[in-house]
Every structure is written in C-alpha cells, then in structure tokens.
Write a structure and sequence with these properties.
The longest helix has 16 residues. It is built from six helices and 23 strands. By secondary structure, it is α+β, with helices and mostly antiparallel strands. It has two domains: 186 residues, RNA polymerase II/Efflux pump adaptor protein, barrel-sandwich hybrid domain (OB fold (Dihydrolipoamide Acetyltransferase, E2P), Beta Barrel); 147 residues, Chloramphenicol Acetyltransferase. β9 and β10 form a beta hairpin.
Length: 460
C-alpha cells in the first residue's frame, strides 16, 4: 500500500486562525516537485503561495477555491516519490506541518494594517531579535530582513500570488495580459490596465453564429418589466410586504480574508476594552500656505505622546500591566475594497514632514498591491483614523488591544468663532480621542488632546 502523507495548513502569519483558498496550482493526480507552488491562500495579511512539502503525486485536495481552511487542518495529501529527495522531517521550513492541537484566538494586535528606511526595511534599533520569525509562507523573516517570494511561473505566466488573486477578482485572464515586469513578470498595473480596457477578459463569450433566419425580420425579444412597487395596491389599499425573516433579496456571504479578521478583532476589542471618547476642534487659522494635513496630524500625535506618554502604551488587561514606549509607531487606518488595513508607520517621532509623506505613500501602495509584509501590520503603539477624508466630524473609533488610544480626525470645516472684538471665520479640524480608561485617566487623555490642539494651532 502506498505511503500517503497529509499536509496540514501551516500558520501563514503570526497566529492567524484560518486562510481562504484562492487558487489550486495542481489537480488530483498531478506530480509536483518539492517547494513548487501548491496553492495560493489569502489571509488577513496577504495572498501567498503555499509550497509543496513533498515531491510526488497529489492524491487529494481539501477545499475548493473560496473555501476557508483552518490553520492546522488538512490541506492536501500526497504519495511521495520514494526515488526523489524529500525534505527531512526535522528540517525547519519556516512553518509547521503537523495537525492543529488547539484553537486559540489571534493576538490582539494582529488586527492590523510601515517602515521608514529608504530600502523599505525597519530603521535599525540596535540589533534586537525579532519575534515570530519564519512563520509566513512566501515572506520569511530573517533578522531585520523580509524575504518576499519570487514570482512563480504557472501555466506559462509569471506572477506573484497577489497578482493572481487580483486577476481572479477582476476576471482577467493572466495568459492574455501583456507583462511589463522584469523577466516577463505580470504586475498589478498590468492586470488593472487589462481589466480597464477589457483586453483580457476571462471566459469572454465567443461571437454568436448568425442563424439561417437572420435575413428575416423577427420581432425582438423585449425584457419583461419588473413589477412596480408603490404605496398602494391596485385596489387602492396599503401594500403589505413580507417580513425579512420570510424572504431575503440576497444570499448570505461568508466573510473572508481581511474582512473576516476585522470582524473577529473588532469583537475582541469590544469585549476587552473600556472605551471613553473626548472630542474637540483644532483651530488651523494660523496655518501659513498649503500644508500636508496628515503629516501635521502625525506631528501633533508625536508631540502629545511626548507630553503624555500614558497614551503611547500597551495595556495587558489580564495581568494588569502597562508598557510605555519610548518610540512612536503609529498605526494608520487604510480603507480598501477588501477591508481595513492598519500598517505601522515606524519611528514617526524621527521623521520630518517629507519623510512622513514618503513613508505613507509607500505604505498605501504596499497595501493596495497586497505586498506589505505581515510584520508591518502589527506592533504599533497608537493609532490614527483620518476618516474626515470622506465624511464625518466626530466618531468613537475602536481601540484595538494592546494599544491604549486611537485618534480620529474629522472633516475640516469653516466655523464662525468668537474673538476679542467680534467674530471671525476659522478653518477647524474636529478631533476624537478614544482611550482605554483602564490604562489612562481622564486627565491624561484631556492633556493629550490639549497637546495635539496646541501643536495643530502653530503656523508651521
């Protein structure tokens, strides 16, 4: 009897409980080589290729594209080739192959979704060892370097997993996309351009054959009009509708990837944090010329963190311990179609305005392309949500443990304010500060907010 080996889904990134199958690169009966791409999986952090742990024949695949597989559950089964070299059982591959022993909740700071050196790496801080090394398939961490996987050639097309996932989402046939990357690699921009111009539509319908009766004049088939709704029926009586419990207009959709993790983290935060929110308006009337609003917000947060360190901290509610941080790493909320990412702007207290803008642009690009390392989606010390870019004045943003505070910036407005001798119209920015009242006092929060207001009121 053949020796069948079962491959269990490894931890694809710092304790994530599950991942979604995006695409299988093999089918049952195929022969695959060691470390060749087995499938692409989407997690709350990224889309990554999972390599094959064996050389041999694929005998079973667990799950179809779109299915959610729990970490530690069976992913695939193989019949290893006895004549081929296999990886030693004890060899470290950067992830675990064994079945899951227990199901635990993800670390609270895994909700989130940058680095500030010119090379895209973390600013050196003295060579301190990093934790959770080698847990991400396709983005292994070694020392202070993140090794991102190379584009794999599958079906004659070279592309990284995130590009393949985007093509699947936009219904683009990668084989028909003109690559612009080095060595013929298809990039994110190539897929987006193909989707925009329709040059590589997936499964495009072939041209219709002209029927023999095409020369005759046939009455066109007109679409049937949908029933019209109105406040009264034809009989003149009020229309009654069935309650939603009896009929639904749509189908339930399983949350996956980023949205699934967001829902889980928000529920955990709601259960763990004792939130309190303070609001006020920053007066920007003294600003000279056009200024980078986000950069000024970050500078104000840094100033407030230095004035009141209690809010630039982590809090452990179980052990009732607090950790104050000497550096300011700001988690910046980035809204995408896939859900919310909070990448970490590292060492914000060391950056000037230009450095902040450069780092934010790099973060946003990495988030949109789903190429941001998982290590940069956690570990921030305080958060910023600039929701005013869209709408809204005040809010009660969610504090995600272990952080203690989050700043929300609302939509700018021109308000009438009283001044000595009369009234003036000033440009003002609404601010909302939500903090965990277990870790900080109301006085500390008020002084923190006051420090932000003072910094934002400066001309430059």
């Amino acid at each position: 009897m053949a020796d069948i080996k079962t491959f269990y889904l490894p931890d694809l990134g710092e304790g994530l409980p599950d991942a979604t199958v995006v695409e299988w690169h093999v089918k049952v009966g195929d022969t695959i080589k060691l470390d060749a791409p087995l499938c692409s999986m989407e997690t709350a952090k990224a889309v990554v290729d999972v390599p094959s742990p064996y050389t041999g024949k694929v005998t079973r695949l667990h799950g179809a594209p779109g299915d959610i597989i729990e970490t530690g559950a069976a992913l695939a089964e193989f019949e290893p080739d006895p004549n081929a070299k296999q990886r030693a059982e004890s060899q470290d591959t950067g992830h675990q192959h064994g079945p899951k022993k227990s199901v635990g909740s993800p670390a609270a700071d895994d909700s989130s979704k940058v680095v500030v050196s010119d090379e895209g790496g973390e600013v050196e801080t003295g060579g301190k060892d990093r934790e959770d090394e080698g847990t991400v398939v396709g983005a292994m961490v070694s020392g202070n370097t993140v090794h991102v996987e190379q584009a794999a050639s599958i079906g004659g097309v070279k592309a990284v997993p995130a590009v393949r996932a985007l093509a699947k989402k936009l219904k683009v046939d990668l084989a028909r996309v003109r690559p612009s990357g080095a060595d013929g690699v298809v990039t994110m921009k190539d897929v987006k351009d193909a989707a925009a111009n329709g040059s590589a539509a997936l499964g495009a319908a072939p041209a219709r054959a002209v029927p023999a009766s095409a020369g005759r004049h046939l009455a066109p088939e007109l679409p049937q009009p949908e029933p019209q709704r109105g406040p009264v029926s034809l009989a003149g009586k009020p229309v009654r509708t069935a309650p939603p419990s009896q009929a639904a207009s749509g189908q339930p959709e399983q949350l996956k990837g980023v949205r699934r993790n967001m829902a889980r983290v928000m529920a955990d935060a709601h259960a763990q944090v004792v939130p309190t929110t303070l609001v006020d308006d920053a007066d920007l009337h003294a600003w000279i010329g056009k200024q980078d609003i986000t950069a000024r917000l970050i500078r104000a947060i840094v100033s407030a963190c230095k004035t009141v360190p209690a809010l630039n901290a982590w809090f452990d509610g179980k052990n009732l311990t607090r950790t104050l941080h000497p550096q300011v790493d700001i988690g910046i909320a980035v809204d995408t179609d896939d859900g919310l990412f909070v990448p970490a702007l590292r060492n914000a207290d060391m950056l000037d305005g230009a450095g902040i803008r450069t780092a934010i642009k790099r973060l946003r690009t990495q988030v949109e392309d789903r190429t941001i390392p998982a290590s940069e989606l956690s570990g921030y010390t305080i958060s910023l949500s600039n929701f005013g870019m869209f709408a809204g004045r005040y809010a009660t943003p969610v504090v995600v443990p272990p952080t203690v505070a989050i700043v929300g910036a609302g939509k700018l407005s021109h308000d009438v304010v009283a001044v000595i001798g009369g009234i003036e119209v000033h440009r003002r920015m609404p601010l909302s500060l939500t903090f965990d009242h277990r870790a900080a006092t109301g006085g500390e929060a008020a002084r923190f907010l006051k420090a932000m207001l003072d910094d934002l009121s400066l001309p430059n």
